[in-house]
């Protein structure tokens, strides 16, 4: 199973790093995301229990990498917003470096958890938790039933609780 991926890695890793470098402008980040791309493919391959058979490996690598670049920029944006919010707090609420680190770590874990949700579940969770909408308002906005909203929130909250138990 790994032989096909090893061959694709050997043949296309340099190309992928250059492709990522053109999008990121940083060779270290490009190398990290290239490794993440192959790791993601390996995990998908192991989960499916099937060999990787690609007619156009570069197109496939670019698709997987594009998603990782998107996630990378989204996390950067989240970190920037967090730092901007902290900069606006009065000195009385200033956090230690350790607290900053813990909060950023928690935000990254939450972001990773949200990535595992189906889009509708993620939307329900964010609308309730960030925008403070009621279940009825969420149901109207998304065009789904209130019962469905409750079920999605229950699933999302359960995932958050289980995730919290892991840390």
Automatic annotation (TrEMBL):
A Gene Ontology biological process term: DNA-templated transcription initiation
Signal peptide (UniProt feature, chain positions): none
Residue ranges of the TM segments: none
One function term, GO molecular function aspect: DNA binding
Keywords: Sigma factor, Transcription, Transcription regulation
SUPFAM superfamilies: Sigma2 domain of RNA polymerase sigma factors, Sigma3 and sigma4 domains of RNA polymerase sigma factors
Annotated ranges, domain RNA polymerase sigma-70 region: 9-77
Database matches in InterPro entries: RNA_pol_sigma-70-like, RNA_pol_sigma-70_dom, RNA_pol_sigma70_r2, RNA_pol_sigma70_r4_t2, RNA_pol_sigma_r2, RNA_pol_sigma_r3/r4-like, WH-like_DNA-bd_sf
Keyword Ribosomal protein in annotation: no
Domain RNA polymerase sigma factor 70 region 4 type residue range list: 108-160
NCBIfam families documented for this protein: sigma70-ECF (TIGR02937)
UniProt similarity note: Belongs to the sigma-70 factor family. ECF subfamily.
Entries under PANTHER family matching the protein: RNA POLYMERASE ECF-TYPE SIGMA FACTO, RNA POLYMERASE SIGMA FACTOR FECI-RELATED
Annotated protein name in UniProt: RNA polymerase sigma-70 factor, ECF subfamily
Native organism: Pseudomonas japonica
